[in-house]
Amino acid sequence: MERVAAAAIIDALGRVTGWSEGARMLTGHRAEEVVGRPATDLLAERVPAEALAARRGTVALRCADGRRTEIALTACPVLGPDGATTGYVLTADPPFQADPTLAGQAFQQASMSMSVFDVDQRYLRSNAAACHVMGVPEEALLGRFFPDTVEEAPHSEGFLRHLRQVVETGRPVRYESFTGAPALNREHAWSIEMWPLRDPAGELTAVALAAFDSTEQYLARLRLALLNEAATAIGTTLDVVRTAEELVELLVPRYADFASVDLLDWVLGAEEPLTVPEGDIALRRVAHGSVTEGTPEAAVRLGESEAHPAASPPARALRERRAVVGQAGEPEFRRWVEERNARAPEGRPHREGVHSMIAVPLQARGVLLGVVVGVRMRHPDDYVIDDTVFAEELASRAAVCIDNARRFARERSTALALQHSLLPRGLPQAAVEVAHRYLPCGSQAGIGGDWFDVIPLSGSRVGLVVGDVVGHGIPSSATMGRLRTAVRTLADVDLPPDELLTHLDDLVTHLAADGSGEEVAELGATCLYAVYDPVSRRLSLAAAGHPAPAVVLPGGTAELIPMTAGPPLGVGGLPFEAAELELPEGAVVALYTDGLVEDRDRDVDRATEEMCRALSAPSDSLEDLTDNVLKAVLPEQPADDVALLLARTRALGADRVATWDVPPDPAEVAHFRQAAVERLTDWGLDEAAFVTELVVSELVTNAIRYGEPPIQLRLIRDRALICEVSDGSSTSPHLRRAHAYDEGGRGLLLVAQLTQRWGSRQTGSGKTIWAEQPLPEGPLPVTDD
C-alpha cells in the first residue's frame, strides 16, 4: 500500500493551521475537526521535556476513536521575514510495533545488537540486545539522533561517519571497533556491519546494522600478537637478568600494571638445579616494572631476596607448576596484599585499587627457575582462565630464554646432557649387540661435535654411524644435531652407504653456499656409515674423511677394515666408495672418532695398534671390552671428544628365514600364499597367518603385475615377522585412494593398515617391498628346520 506522509502545521500560538491526509489516516481526525484548535487537544499525555528541547521524540496522541497511539515526531520551525519563528511543521511516522512475524521475532531476539536508522541517522528500530547495550528501552531511542544518545568520543564519531557513508554510497560497510557502551562497565570489541534498506522502488530509505561482540576474539588476537612479539623481544641476549627485564617490558602495561620476575638463587649461580622446598620458598628479585614511573609499589628491591609463605600465590605457583590467580575479596589475595603493605608501607598508596594478580612459574625443560607475577590496578578486567593459558605459554617461552642464558655459562654441563641425548634407545631387532661410550674432552673450549648412532633398518638390518664435527662450542653441537638428523632421515630411505654420504655431502655443500658469510661448522666434518644384514651376514660401509673401523673375528685379532675413505663432508665433487665384507656371527666391529687415537702428544699409528690389541684381548662382556679399550688407549685427560661404538654381530639362520623364487605367473600366487602359511605353522605363528597371507598375496601379485623378473619372496622371523618381495624393477609403489567402482588400488592400503609398518628400498638389481608385523613378547620359538 502506498505510504502517505503524516504532517501538520501549527502557528506560534500552538493552534493547528494545516492537516495532511496522512495525519487523518494516522489519527482518524479530519482537517475540519482539527484546524483552528490548540494542538494540545490532540495529546494523550504531556510531551516529554527532552523531546520539546530536541524538537524530536515520541509523542502520545488521542485518536478519533478514543484509542491512544505513539508516533515519532519531528518539528521543523517556520521562519518569518525577520527570522522569527512563526510556526512549526510537524512530520510524524507511527513507531514500529512488535512484529509478530517470524522475521520480526528473529530480529528482536537476536543475540547480536541490531538497529535500524533513517537516512538522517535517527533511530527507527532497536532489538533487545541493542537496548541492553545502550541501557535504555527502545521507546527512549526511537526518533532520536544517534549522537544525542551516546557520549562524544572518537568511536561515536566513527560510528556516525559509517552510517552516513552507507547513505551517501548506497553500499554496505563492515568494520571493527574497540569501545565501551553506555550500559557496559568495560570496553568491548565489536564487529559491525551496516547495509542499506531500499523500498520497492529501489530508493534508499534506511540503514540497518548488526554489531557482534567479538571481545573474546579480539583479546585472543592481542594475546597471540603478544606471544609472537615475545619470540623476538625476549632472549635477545644470553644474560639472565636482561632476559627477565625483557619479559617485564613486554607485560607492562599491556598485560599488567605491575610485573616482577623472581628467580631461585641457584639459577644465578653455578649450582645444579635444586628441588623446590615444601615450606617457605626464597626467591630473589631480578626485574620489575610498573605503569608508574619508578615502580613505587614494589615491596622488594632489585637484588633482594624474599621468603614467600607456602600459601602465597608465588609459592603455590612453583609447587603446583601452574598459574595461580588471586582476586579481590579472596582471603589469600587479601593476605598477600597485606604482606606487601607490611613489608613496604611507603608504597601502600600506589597499591590502592589492586583487584587481581597472577603468579606463573618459570619452568624450562622440566626445571623450575622462578616465578613471574602480574598485578592489575588500573586495568579494569580481572585475570581469567584464558589469561592463565596465555601467561603459562608466555612464561614457558621466557623460561627457555632464561635457561638458555644460564646454560651458556655452563657449556660443559650441556655437553654431558648432550651425551645422554645421543645414546641409542635400544634395538627393535636382534641384528647386533652394542656397547658405546661418549667422553667429552676436558678442554676449556667446551663441547665438541663427536656423535654416533644405531639406526634400525628394514629386513632386520641395522645402520651404524659415527661422525665428528670440527671445532668446539655451540655451533659444533648444533651441527652435530643437524648431521645426525640428516643421517637418520637418509637411512630411513634405505640408501646404500656410499649414496647416503653423497647426499650428506651435498647437504653440507648447500649449507656452505647459502651466502650468509658466516663460517659453516659442517665444513670439514667426517662421517662413517655402515649397514649390517644379519641374514646375508654382510657388512657394507663407506667413509667421508673418517678413520676406518676395526673388526675382530671370533678367536682372532683386531684388524682395520681395508677401505678407501672419501673426502670430508663439504668438499664436493669427489666420489665415495663402499666396501663390503662377510662377517661370521660373533664378530666385533669397532667404530670410533679420531679423538680415540689422535693427539698432538701421541703417535697415531701406535695409538691404533694399542686399540687393536685392547680389542683382541679376552673380555667377559662387550661393555667391559669398551671400558678396557678406553683405559688402554686414552690418556688421563683427553684433548678431544671421544666416541666409541662396538657392535657384535648376530646372524639369522636358515631356521628363521624362508625364501622362494616366484615365477611371473599370477596363477602361482595361491601356491606361495599356502607356502607362507605352512612356514608360519612350522614357526608356531599361526595367529599371524591371516595377515601374512593377505600381505603375501598383495605384494607378490603387484610384483608379477607391475614388476620384472626375477621375483623373490622372503619371510624373516625376528622380533617382528617380516615379509619381503623383491623384483627387477626400480619403480616403487605408492598408496592411492581407490574410488568406489575401481577394481584395484586398495591392496597397499590394506597392507599399511594391517601391518606395523611397510616400505620399499632400492637394491642393486631392482627393489624390495617389505612389511612388518609385531610378534608376541617372549622368547622366539625353536624349530627343527
Task: Describe the overall structure.
The protein is α+β, with helices and mostly antiparallel strands. About 30% of the residues lie in helices and about 30% in strands. The chain is built from 19 helices and 31 strands. The protein has a 6-stranded antiparallel beta sheet with strand order 13-12-11-16-15-14, sandwiched between helices. Strands 2-1-5-4-3 form a 5-stranded antiparallel beta sheet. The chain has a 5-stranded antiparallel beta sheet with strand order 7-6-10-9-8, sandwiched between helices. Strand 4 and strand 5 form a beta hairpin. Helix 18 packs antiparallel against helix 19 (about 745-755). It is elongated and about 135 Å long. It starts with 5 loop residues before the first strand and ends in an 11-residue tail after the last strand. About 35% of the residues are buried. Mean pLDDT is about 85; it is low at about 740-745 and about 780-785.
Continuous helix count: 19
Low-confidence stretches: 738-744, 779-785
Structural category: alpha+beta
Kindly report the spatial arrangement of strands forming the biggest sheet: 13-12-11-16-15-14
Query: Radius of gyration, rounded?
Result: 42 Å
